[in-house]
Amino acid sequence: MMGHYDPRTVGAQIRMKLPFLTPLEARVVDTITGRNDLDLTTALRQVSEDAGVSDAMVVKIAKKLGFNGFRDFREALVVYRQTDVASLHSEISPEDSSADIIRKVFQTSIQALEETMSIIDVSAFDRAATLLHGARQRDFYGVGGSAQIARDVAHKFLRIGLRAGVQDDPHMMLMSAALLGPEDVVVAFSHSGTTSNVIEAARLARQQGARVIAITNYATAPLSELADIALCSTAQGSPLLGENAAARIAQLNIMDAIFVAVAQRDLERAEAQLARTRNAVDNKRRR
């Protein structure tokens, strides 16, 4: 029976669980996903012998990845392969023309957006928008590339009259977290979900009674586990582009959607504040 999968979610589902497999399990998954001849008739025995493990081990890994068993996993992979989704992501080579490079880079981002949109938990998204709308103080934590996303969102919130503090220094994050209370919200950005500085500050914020929203690429990462709400991007890794580039685009879009949902909660006020902040900047432009 084919077709009950949304192919965009298959790659996402496997990628999100990969960091939590043992090295042996990850190698078995690589062996299975690397087969060009995989189809609906590929036997469990073929796969397990190829990977050098028992049949039971393959079934256990399929279940760990969130499938019912080997046949379910096999079917999901076949469906995924039949779509363009899997083939979009190809490595950059020395022979690539500029047009090839543009296509590959853009397609990687388009794919990250498509897949992320397909896995967004709408009720979690709603709760996050409600929390951010009603918060007294909004703290955004992130280091490196994640801090850039935090700044982008804080800038948008300020335009509609909602202040958000962006902290990208470990000590500043902790000091700010120590001052939060039950009416406050933290948005913690970490691609891996394992950035210790961000986790420490988010944990302290929780201890103060603040709510924590995690924005990460992995649903079962430590940051997601400690958060009240986790909103996940999903992006395939590429040695040259890295996961981060495509994940950043997806995370920016998640936060853009959150921003719109927050503004929608009180559209009249948002529009009035937008006019005020726009006027302040317009005056600057005319000189």
Describe this structure in words.
The chain is of the alpha/beta class. The protein folds into 2 domains: 7-86, Arc Repressor Mutant, subunit A, CATH 1.10.10; 118-283, Rossmann fold, CATH 3.40.50. 62% of the residues lie in helices and 8% in strands. It has 14 helices and 5 strands. It has helices at residues 7-17, 23-33, 44-51, 55-64, 70-82, 85-88, 98-119, 122-134, 145-159, 170-178, 196-207, 222-226, 242-265, 267-286; strands spanning 138-141, 165-167, 185-189, 211-216, 229-232. It has a 5-stranded parallel sheet, sandwiched between helices. Helix 9 runs parallel beside helix 13 (242-265). The longest helix has 24 residues, at 242-265. The chain starts with 6 loop residues before the first helix and ends with a helix. The model has no long low-confidence stretch (mean pLDDT 87). It comes from Paracoccus denitrificans (strain Pd 1222). One of its GO terms (biological process) is carbohydrate derivative metabolic process. This is Transcriptional regulator, RpiR family. Residues 260-287 form a coiled coil. It holds the Pfam family SIS.
Gross geometry: globular
Q: Return the average pLDDT rounded to an integer.
A: 87
Strand coverage percent: 5-15%
Share of residues in helices: 55-70%
How would you summarize this macromolecular structure in one to three sentences?
This is Transcriptional regulator, RpiR family. It is built from 14 helices and 5 strands. It is of the alpha/beta class.
